[in-house]
Amino acid sequence: MAKTTCAKALQNWEQDHPGEQPSEAEDIRLIFQNPPLDKLDPPVLNTLAKVKRLSLSSNAIEKMVNLPGLRQIEILSLSRNNIKKIAGLEEIGQTLKELWLSYNYIERLDGLQPCVKLHTLYIGNNRIKVWDEVDKLKDLPEIANVLFIGNPIYENQKDDPKLLVLKRINTLKNVDGTVVDDSLMEKVKALGDGVPTTTVK
């Protein structure tokens, strides 16, 4: 089946936003393309020099790519695609604040290191099987809001999984939609020193 290209998706956007130019827009949503987008086209997307929020959710995108033209990007949404690996964030890590990647096929949290201003990561319903992957978020100085619900690491835990996340990263302000307060941190302290490390089979 034929797929929608990024160029065609932007044409569709222009039809829905008469009088507006994509190169001048701060919020562009290319979700639910029919037929779906299956790949990102850097020459096309790099023209979106002023975009702050780019939504590409609910398509069939398989790979993240470098998009150095998105010099002001703050929110990138790629949820509900076919992505298996976090990549291509080197050029936008200085401005990106929120990354939405839920409902993909991601197993590892490598590739986030350039995102020094990232405070929100939604990565629920992926394939993260190893708790040590969560530790990689410690390298993100601004990370405060995460969502892991629906990953294999949450299965068969006797303790509340969000407490296990907080045990590893105690600077978070919100986990799985729950605001971190003193009572929640008391529950974390009650867990003791053990944290899960094994691979989920």
TrEMBL record:
Q: Which GO terms describe its cellular component?
A: axoneme; dynein complex; microtubule
PROSITE patterns membership: LRR
- Check the record and name the SMART domains matching this protein: LRR_SD22
Name the keywords, alphabetized. Answer: Cell projection, Cytoplasm, Cytoskeleton, Dynein, Leucine-rich repeat, Microtubule, Motor protein, Repeat
| Main location per the UniProt record | cytoplasm
TM helices/strands, residue ranges: none
- Pfam families given for it? LRR_4 (PF12799)
Q: Which domain of life is it from?
A: Eukaryota
Subcellular localization, as worded in the UniProt entry:
Cytoplasm, Cytoskeleton, Cilium axoneme
The family annotation for this protein states:
Belongs to the dynein light chain LC1-type family.
The identity of this protein, by name, is: Dynein axonemal light chain 1
Name the species this protein comes from. Paramecium pentaurelia
Organism ancestry? Eukaryota, Sar, Alveolata, Ciliophora, Intramacronucleata
